[in-house]
User: What shape does this take?
Amino acid sequence: MVMLDENQLSLIKEKLYKYSGIFLNDSKLAMIKNRIYHLMRDTQIYNIDTLLSNIESNAKIQQQFINSLTTNKTDFFREVFHFQDMIDRSLPALFRLNKPIKIYCCASSTGQEPYSIAMSVLYAKKLYKSSIPVSIVATDIDTNVLQEAKEGIYTIDFKVEKFPHWCDIDEYFDALDDGKNPSVRLFKAKNKLKNMLTFKQTNLFSKSYPFIREEFDILFCRNVLIYFKQEDQQEILSRLIDTLRIDGTFYLGHSEILFHLSEKFEKLGNKTFIKIKA
Ligand SMILES: C[S@@+](CC[C@H](N)C(=O)[O-])C[C@H]1O[C@@H](n2cnc3c(N)ncnc32)[C@H](O)[C@@H]1O
Assistant: This one.
């Protein structure tokens, strides 16, 4: 593991905050040292001061720095009640409006969340016999996870990952292995999922987002606000909910809150909200 003095450590935290809004507190010291050690190995820059100045001056190294310090934990159908609510309530209501549907998933990591959204949409379309076009925009700041998500190749351990009863994996993924180990399988997402999805890099900490006001019918923002300071969470939330139309549904992570912005929403429970005010 790499040795960091107080000054170097605070420069690392400062730069990460400046470029991503991610705020790391001192309890993360071991994690920071470990991740910086890996970054040094990947960039072949073993001098911390040289690395720090390259983070400022070299866009590629700056991106590698950000990628190295994000936490990308995710799962298929994590907080499954949101996907069930889409199938039971939000999607059938949108199908009745007879207009193309747009969904935004704003910290999509390696893609399990937007692919779970896409599977839920396809299942709901079948269930309600709808042919309404649905598109899903999935963004993240981390270019490595976006690349993995675009590829859509996953090792799925069925002892760990829980899929809803309606989800027949073979309907949505092609097997890439010989199936000899039925509990851990290698799959690739089928084009019918991929065709609904657009992945792009967006930094939630930047002052504006590449979307128009009220562009989306459904917004997923889960397990990302926790990495930001409270005052930044409120600003990010306020920019995000601007992209959601009135009557649109907002699915928020289990340990995240809306602060004063909750007055713009009707609360349905399970961190599910309907936007009622601009
Ligand atoms: C713990 S994962 C959550 C993934 C998914 N939303 C879920 O709930 O399973 C957090 C993700 O937020 C992304 N992230 C962190 N800071 C970000 C920022 N400033 N802008 C966009 N994404 C960010 C990370 O790269 C990471 O992939």
